[in-house]
Specification:
The protein has about 450 residues and is an alpha+beta fold. It has eleven helices and 13 strands. It folds into three domains: about 120 residues, no CATH class; about 110 residues, no CATH class; about 150 residues, Histidine kinase-like ATPase, C-terminal domain (Heat Shock Protein 90, 2-Layer Sandwich). α6 runs parallel beside α11. It binds adenosine-5'-diphosphate (ADP). Adenosine-5'-diphosphate (ADP) binds next to α8 and α11.
Length: about 450
Amino acid sequence: MIISNNSVKNNRIFTQTQFSLTCWYASIFTGIISLGALGVYEAIAHAHYVTINQELKAVSGTFHDTLEPLLIKPNILENNIQEILPDLCLVNQKCEQNYHQSKYITKFIQQGKYYFQFFDLSGNLLGKAGIEIKGLSIIHQQEELINLKDKNNIRYRQISLLLHTKDNKQWGYLQIGRSLEDFDHYVNNIKWFLLLGLPLLIILVIIASWYLAKKAMQPVYKSYQQIQQFSSDVAHELRTPLAAIKATLDSIMMIKELPLKDSKETLITINRQNQRLINLVSDLLILSRLDSITENSYIPVKTDINLVDLVNDLVEELSFLAFKNNIEFIQKIKVKENLLIKGNEEQIYRLLTNLVINAMENNHENGKVIISLEVEKKEVIIKVIDTGIGISEEDKTLIFNRFYRVNKARNRDKGGSGLGLAIAQAIALYHNGRIELESSVNKGSIFTVYLPK
Ligand code: ADP
């Protein structure tokens, strides 16, 4: 029975899980991106702020050193200061604001970002230069950088310096400020860029998260589908012998007095079906145990196995079946002494038995089955060769699947459940080995088992 792919994909649990995974991914990534954006914003703003501070300190230091040798009397602005600040405008003097060339720090003044204010020791304004500012006249006697805002809400970074005359008397204060308009404009642009870019990024993150969640769900879909397929196959396999037992019992119960001969035949039928059930359940148990090895919950004992002895035993045990099927059963042991490998003897025996029984059951009348044992540098090679019906290219990839039978009706009649090769492969894998298959239809097949030495 094939379970459709859609029934899984349309399953509500999977859609819900994919949705909740998407939400988790999206919220985590959005958090990370938002933090990253905030970090970028802070880093850029901080770097600019530091540069502005350094620039302001450099300008104020240069002015301080250049002006002090020119100051003679406290509280008096000498004329020669105009050489340094050409647009210096004294209080009560009407001045036009134009930035003249000066051999000193014109660069800063020309940029139109700086203002300079001179105050006497009592805090009265003596003169000013640079850009026009409105509503800023606070004197800060400490030489530290502060932020101020004018009437137009433009921010300024300002420093106040106590100046001394040539002969080291206190002269008055110089206040230098720098407009933060360009800085605020730049930082604002970045803020808007990030704020507008963020929703776009979040949309991309949601799309990527949906895709990632879908990718993450795929193996879960697949194994869920396999489990569903497996349960459905198990139910199907159990139903056949159970239905046969029930049908036999129903027909018997309708007969009032059952002759002893018929009752014996009935019991034989029931016993045969019961044996099928026992075989199926024990095969399922083996597979389930081999599956749990990978999850480390079941670890069968590994001992030294003498493969020569094991093959001899197997040939002895299955010779009767070969005889029954009119098959020539040949053994070719190409090793001189005993050949030891580490493994689980019972399982290796089961693996080879499955291959040999298949080779006999899928053979022609008077066909041949050869079991050979040889050894290479790192591997032991066991071949089971038959001259039977062969396996088509299409079936070669499928026969190791659980419950897969090439000819369903024929194999079921023989009592096969389609688990033999799946078990053989699981055993080989557990022993770090592999099974390879060569076959051509109507000529025969070679199953080669490689096991590490
Ligand atoms: P089963 O237990 O029913 O035999 P297996 O898993 O052992 O199932 O085999 C799966 C299918 O592979 C079988 O239906 C059988 O037809 C086919 N097969 C296995 N071995 C051979 C072989 N040596 N030659 C041809 N067909 C084979």
